[in-house]
Design goal:
The protein is an alpha/beta fold. Helices cover about 35% and strands about 25% of the residues. Strands 12-11-8-13-16-17-19-20 form an eight-stranded mixed beta sheet, with helices on both faces. Strands 2-1-3-4-5 form a five-stranded parallel beta sheet, sandwiched between helices. It is elongated, with a radius of gyration of 25 Å. It starts with 7 loop residues before the first strand and ends with a helix. Bound molecules: cytidine-5'-triphosphate (CTP). Cytidine-5'-triphosphate binds next to helix 11 and strand 16. Cytidine-5'-triphosphate binds near residues 255, 305 and 324.
Length: about 400
C-alpha cells in the first residue's frame, strides 16, 4: 500500500465479534506509515483489549470521552480535526443507528459527529439485524449524509446463521482506505482501459500456445489508474493474480477474445493501454479431440491473429490516447519507434528482456517511454512505480 505515509486515520471499533479483524487493519495501516488512532466503544473492549490496538498502532487507544490523561485537548474535537479518514469496523447496528441520528454519547460517536473527513462504515452483524428495515433505513441515511458503506460479506456468521453480515477481509477495508487517501484523483472522469497478461491459443482441448507474461505490469497500471480516480476496465488473459478491486475485470483468453472485448469498450475509452502480450499466431485449426502422438505429426500449421492495436488505429476516436507496449531482445528503440508509427500510437512503453530487472514475472521493470517527440529512459523500479510514471507521462500529454 503506497500513499498512506503520514495520513491520520481514526479506526473506530464497536462491540461485535469481528472486532478482532480490526487489529489486522490497524497493524497494516501502521506498517504503511499512517498515524493510526483507535477509538473503541465500551462494548468493543469486551471482545478485544485496548492494549492490542495500542501495541499495533503505537498510540493510546481511546475508550472514554472523559479520559483525563489523553494527549489532545478536547480530545474528540482535536481528533476529528486532525483526521484524514475515519473507518468504523466492525460497525454494529447500534452505532449505525446512533450515527444516522446524530447521537453522540461516547468518544467514537462524538468524534465522528465532529469530523468533516471521509467516513467509511463496515457494518457487521447478524443477517436479520442487517436486513431489518430500521437498519436498512439507517444505512441509507448514512449514505445520504456522505458516509461510504463497505458492503458486508456473506457466509457463516458467528451466531451460526448463514447470510450477509460478515465483516469483509482486512484487505478489502485497506483497499477502500487506499482508494480514498492514496492519490490525487487526477484521472477522475476518464475511462481507462488496460489489457494485461498473456493470451492462450488453443491447439486442441488439452493444449495451447502462450507466453511468459504474468500480467503484473498491466494489473499495476489498472490499480494505479483506479487510485487516480479513473473508471477502469481491465481486460486480462489468464493470470494467477487477484482481480483489481474497483475496476471492471474482464477475462479474454485468446487474442480473438481480447480483440472482441477491446472493440466493445473502445467507444467509451479515453485512454487505452495495451500491456497484454498478445499472441501473433494461433493454430490454423483447433482439433476437436485431443491430438494423439504419432510419428508423422511434426508440423503445427499456424495463422496470424488480428493485431488489436492496428484495428484500434483504424477505429479510434481522435481525442483518445493510445499507449502500446513493446518487449524486445534487441534493437529496442528502433523496433519500438517502428511500432509507435505503424500502429499510430501516442506512446509506447518499451522494455528489453535482457536488461536485469526488466520484463516478465518479476516485480520490477525498466521502461523507456517513447512518444513521437520524446524518449524518457526510466531506471529500474517496482512495477507499481513504473505504472505511476507511465500514467504521469500520459497525464502530461492529455492536459
Ligand atoms: N499487440 C496487439 N495485437 C497483437 C499483438 C500485439 O495489439 N496481435 C500489441 C501489444 O499488446 C503491444 C504492441 O502490440 O502493445 C506491441 O506488441 P509486440 O508483441 O511487442 O509487437 P508486435 O507488434 O507483435 O511485433 P513483433 O512481435 O514482431 O515484435
Amino acid at each position: 500500500m503506497n500513499g498512506l505515509k503520514g495520513k491520520y486515520i481514526i479506526v473506530g471499533v464497536t462491540g461485535g465479534i469481528a472486532a478482532y479483524k480490526a487489529a489486522g487493519v490497524v497493524s497494516a495501516l501502521h506498517k504503511a506509515g499512517a498515524q493510526v488512532h483507535v477509538i473503541m466503544t465500551k462494548n468493543a473492549t469486551e471482545f478485544v483489549t485496548p492494549l492490542t490496538f495500542e501495541t499495533l498502532s503505537g498510540n493510546r487507544c481511546i475508550t472514554d470521552t472523559f479520559a483525563r490523561d489523553y494527549q489532545f485537548d478536547v480530545a474528540h474535537v482535536s481528533l476529528a480535526k486532525a483526521a484524514d479518514l475515519i473507518l468504523i469496523a466492525p460497525a454494529t447496528a447500534n452505532v449505525i443507528a446512533k450515527l444516522a441520528h446524530g447521537i453522540a454519547d461516547d468518544m467514537l460517536t462524538t468524534t465522528v459527529l465532529a469530523a468533516k473527513c471521509p467516513k467509511l462504515i463496515a457494518p457487521a452483524m447478524n443477517t436479520a439485524m442487517l436486513e431489518n428495515p430500521i437498519t436498512k433505513d439507517n444505512i441509507k441515511t448514512l449514505i445520504k449524509y456522505g458516509f461510504e458503506i463497505i458492503p458486508p460479506d456473506s457466509g457463516t456468521l458467528a451466531c451460526g446463521d448463514s447470510g450477509s453480515g460478515r465483516l469483509p477481509d482486512q484487505q478489502v477495508m485497506l483497499d477502500y482506505i487506499e482508494l480514498k487517501l492514496a492519490k490525487e484523483k487526477t484521472l477522475a472522469g476518464k475511462h481507462v482501459t488496460v489489457t494485461a497478461g498473456p493470451t492462450r491459443e488453443a491447439v486442441d482441448p488439452v493444449r495451447f500456445i502462450t507466453n511468459h507474461s504474468s500480467g503484473k505490469m498491466g494489473y499495476a497500471i489498472a490499480h494505479e489508474a483506479v487510485l487516480r480516480g479513473a473508471q477502469v476496465t481491465l481486460i486480462s488473459g489468464k493470470t494467477a493474480l487477484p482481480p483489481v478491486r474497483f475496476a471492471k475485470n474482464t477475462e479474454a483468453v485468446s487474442a480473438a477474445d481480447m480483440l472482441c472485448e477491446v472493440q466493445k469498450v473502445l467507444p467509451e475509452t479515453d485512454i487505452l493501454i495495451m500491456c497484454a502480450a498478445v499472441a501473433d499466431y494461433r493454430p490454423a485449426n483447433i482439433a476437436e479431440n485431443k491430438i494423439k502422438k504419432s510419428d508423422d505429426m511434426n508440423v503445427l500449421p499456424l495463422e496470424r491473429t488480428e493485431d488489436i492495436l492496428s484495428w484500434v488505429a483504424k477505429n479510434r476516436h481522435d481525442d483518445m490516447f493510445v499507449c502500446g507496449f513493446s518487449m524486445e531482445t534487441r534493437d529496442l528503440l528502433e523496433s519500438s519507434r517502428k511500432k509507435l508509427n505503424d500502429k499510430k500510437l501516442d506512446m509506447i512503453a518499451a522494455n528489453d528482456l535482457n536488461t536485469p530487472g526488466a520484463g516478465f514475472a518479476g516485480d520490477t521493470n525498466v521502461l523507456t517511454l517513447i512518444t513521437p517527440d520524446s524518449c524518457a529512459e526510466l531506471p529500474l523500479m517496482s512495477k507499481d512505480d513504473a505504472a505511476a510514471k507511465l500514467l504521469d507521462m500520459i497525464e502530461q500529454h492529455i492536459k
